[in-house]
Amino acid sequence: MLFGKEHVARYQETDGEEGHDWQGTVTLLLTTTGRRTGKQHTTPLIYQPEGDAYLVVASKGGDDDDPLWYKNLQANPEVKVQVKGDRFTARARTATPEEKPPLWSKMAAVWPDYDQYQTKTDRDIPVVILERA
């Protein structure tokens, strides 16, 4: 099973032939710029398309703290995305409280653990919308 840096490397090397399909769902690669270091960080994330955009969830397994990639995109919303062989620049934004319910339902339908993660924390787990720049 691919995970972490190995997942990123195999995905990039094979244009997602290895790594896109993962544990019964699909993943993209999100590259953010470190808010302190300025270095590029790439994370594989479960996603779903939403019109011309893509959705990801900043769950961190229900941890009380946001994942680092989410903190980075809050500081700099200009990100890079790879979906299979399609690489593009995007602008990341957090779904508004009005937008979130149907988007959350869409994501929880493909990864039901998201609902469990939300019960583990008082943090409102964000749904992030990645819109092509």
Ordered list of secondary-structure elements with their pairings:
Elements: H1 4-13, E1 21-22, E2 25-33, E3 40-46, E4 48-50, E5 53-57, H2 68-75, E6 78-83, E7 86-94, H3 100-110, H4 113-119, E8 127-132
Antiparallel strand pairs: 1-2, 2-3, 2-6, 4-5, 5-8, 6-7, 7-8
Output the keywords:
about 130 residues; alpha+beta; Pnp Oxidase, Chain A; 4 helices; 8 strands
Question: Could you describe the 3D structure shown?
Answer:
The protein is of the alpha+beta class and 133 residues long. It has one domain (4-132): Pnp Oxidase, Chain A (Roll). It has helices spanning 4-13, 68-75, 100-110, 113-119; strands spanning 21-22, 25-33, 40-46, 48-50, 53-57, 78-83, 86-94, 127-132. Strands 1, 2, 3, 4, 5, 6, 7 and 8 form an 8-stranded antiparallel β-sheet that branches. The longest helix has 11 residues, at 100-110.
Q: Which structural class matches the secondary elements? A: alpha+beta
Helicity range of the residues?
25-40%
Q: Judging from the principal axes of the Cα atoms, what is the shape?
A: globular
- Poorly predicted runs are none
CATH superfamily: Electron Transport, Fmn-binding Protein, Chain A
Reported CATH architecture: Roll
Count of DSSP-assigned helices:
4
Radius of gyration using CA atoms only = 14 Å
User: CATH topology, anyone?
Assistant: Pnp Oxidase, Chain A
Distance between the termini: 32 Å
Order of helices and strands: HEEEEEHEEHHE
Assigned CATH class: Mainly Beta
Total beta strands: 8
What kind of sheet is the major sheet? 8 strands, antiparallel
Quick check: average pLDDT? 96
**How many domains make up the 3D coordinates?**
1
Q: What fraction of the residues are assigned to beta strands by DSSP?
A: 35-45%
Family: Belongs to the F420H(2)-dependent quinone reductase family.
Catalytic activity: oxidized coenzyme F420-(gamma-L-Glu)(n) + a quinol + H(+) = reduced coenzyme F420-(gamma-L-Glu)(n) + a quinone
Pfam families: F420H2_quin_red (PF04075)
Protein name: Nitroreductase family deazaflavin-dependent oxidoreductase
